[in-house]
Amino acid sequence: MNVVITGSSGFVGQNLTPFLLERGFSVSPLSLRGDWPEKLPERYDAIIHLAGKAHDTKNTTAPEEYFRVNTDLTIKLFDFFLKSKARDFVYFSSVKAVADSVSGVLDESVIPDPRTPYGQSKRKAEEYLQTKLLPEGKRLFILRPCMIHGPGNKGNLNLLYKVVSKGVPWPLGSFENARSFLSIDNLLFVIRTLLHHSELPGGVYNLADDDSLSTNEVIKIIAETKGKKPRIWRIPSPVIQWVARLGGKFKLPLDPERLKKLTENYVVDNTKIKRVLNIHNFPVSVTEGLRNTLESFSQNK
Prior knowledge:
11 strands; Rossmann fold; six-stranded parallel beta sheet; 2 domains; globular; UDP-galactose 4-epimerase, domain 1; alpha/beta
């Protein structure tokens, strides 16, 4: 099977490409810069569309840039797919195409209401893809992953790791939350299974590990991997929120956006994709996946 992958240089693409090659797939990276239609291989069976403009937490990206990359390029690529002989189009959207914050549990029945240009641009692409009539024999998968992590990934997990490694007390212990994560191993498992089994139905699927964790639990797991005792301070949340507002004004590490990322509730339901794959649990537990990522941080110091 020949698979075209856009965004192959990104975190997911760097993991997906060798994963598929080791399992007998042929992989053709595709850059969407310049006159990319001419770069498509003569024959391919699936397109995995990873390329996109990531959410800029510092809000320095112009809103139209999200729509140019996440919406317009996706539409153009999907139109090429519809005319091709390829069977599958796998679009990597995001849970942020549905909701920026979650009350309860996010499943596929929730009516999308994204509030940021990033989420809106992803949602607009989803809407276009879903309005097009698929020719017989073609499948469309719209995957909505939550926060993906794994070896080589940077972001808030890396920040937490550095805080604990330096013995700095975690000052946000008063915030009790629950968050879903997605191990890169479980993500790769899903993609391979969907491509390998032509009988599985296309559709919209949330992707998340089986269980959620609080940030305090993540801190404890990090401390365990470092052989340290977790140091969690439960400073009153109003004090922390005041400090974050100051951080926003004076460009400090803790600002309102980062505080939200570290302490918000965001639980994602993965029942639908597991039902389609006919499995009870993903191969890697949330704790095991997290430990794999944390160990990679230690090796790459």
